[in-house]
């Protein structure tokens, strides 16, 4: 009887904790968003975050997209050759890259690189009183630290994904033409025929949402970190894990919303 | 503590974390243009008291009046304006790692748009000179400075806006005795020059006597003594005597797990 009660109590505590954390993240996100549209604006902080999120993530995202496009071409060729359907490869590559792999892989790469860095940076500022110092210097930390980073994520990820889309398709093209002896003209024609505007735009919508989620989790975990170096380390790990899970969950929801019909 | 009208007036301030009562009815005044040093052991509530006064923490009950106005019930806009009248030196200086020293020093002025970035660079040099640093230090980053230099830069940042009130959180912690005395001297000089009202928390007795006009002692969240900083070493109060002379025996008991 006692064990059953303990079990129920444990489930209750976990449920309450889940609601509490979800509510805290939602309030944090709303506060951050509200500061994006209310002056003063910190253009320098935004620009720095934009470069960090977008420009400096470009090499890792570009390489990931390029190789992923090539792998899809190679794998789908192996499978489709059995049914003499090799001509579908171009369409498979472009749809897989623009709808899914571009946004998801770019998102996961940025979560690992930028989300972790944001959590560590803001977390260190928290445990060394730098955030309190901002407060005493008439500067709202949400406005100075969080809002520019959220905006940078919202803007930079779609641009990164656009480049990832091009490079992913290019990776598939290179493998198809150089290794699998496809005609370059036929491959490009098949790619353009398979691609719809909706594929790219939904991918970019996903990217913007992923960018927001990654920076949100990085900022939230860093902002609420405590307990010195160990706390900052935990915040960094939590930021990457939470962003990755949320990213995949929202990827499913958006895919279901736009493509399930 | 003096006959002058208080700049800062604190009444029955209470703050607890769960079942732990950290501040328990703290009441004291700080007169305009004077320095008050609050001493006490680790965990006595000094930092929490300072954070409540700075608005970084909300007390459970009590009042904090600045110039007769209770800041706990004041509108947010008034509290924001009040921040412009405050300078704070944090225990570890809390300089912004990502900004050069000159931007750290003039951060508050730039935030309030009181001057352009070009003018800020020039003014930072002048403020750094006031704390005994060469203006060329402005181009360095905090990680390139020694602990003493970081404290000086933190002090420069605190006084940059010529605040009415200055707060110091253990200003000499982590410094050698000579550098501690240098920082104390700079603090006294800045407070006198600006005519500011100051509150410092410390457990460095030499520093407390150098900085403070008045002193008070916190023990278990309560003020157990208030008086002139000159009388700290000979107060006649058993708590203060035990603390200032570092005696093991006395009314102060340390919570040690065996």
UniProtKB/TrEMBL annotation, chain A:
GO terms for molecular function: phospholipid transporter activity. One of its GO terms (cellular component) is ATP-binding cassette (ABC) transporter complex. Keywords: Cell inner membrane, Cell membrane, Membrane, Transmembrane, Transmembrane helix, Transport. It is a multi-pass membrane protein. InterPro entries: ABC_MlaE_roteobac, Permease_MalE. It is found in: Cell inner membrane; Membrane. The keyword Cell inner membrane applies. It comes from the Bacteria. The chain crosses the membrane at residues 18-36, 56-74, 150-180, 200-220, 232-254. Could be part of an ABC transporter complex. Belongs to the MlaE permease family. This is ABC transporter permease. It comes from Acetobacter peroxydans.
UniProtKB/TrEMBL annotation, chain B:
Residues 8-245 form the ABC transporter domain. GO terms for molecular function: ATP binding; ATP hydrolysis activity. The keyword Nucleotide-binding applies. Keywords: ATP-binding, Nucleotide-binding, Transport. InterPro entries: AAA+_ATPase, ABC_transporter-like_ATP-bd, ABC_transporter-like_CS, P-loop_NTPase. It comes from the Bacteria. It holds the Pfam family ABC_tran. This is ABC transporter ATP-binding protein. It comes from Acetobacter peroxydans.
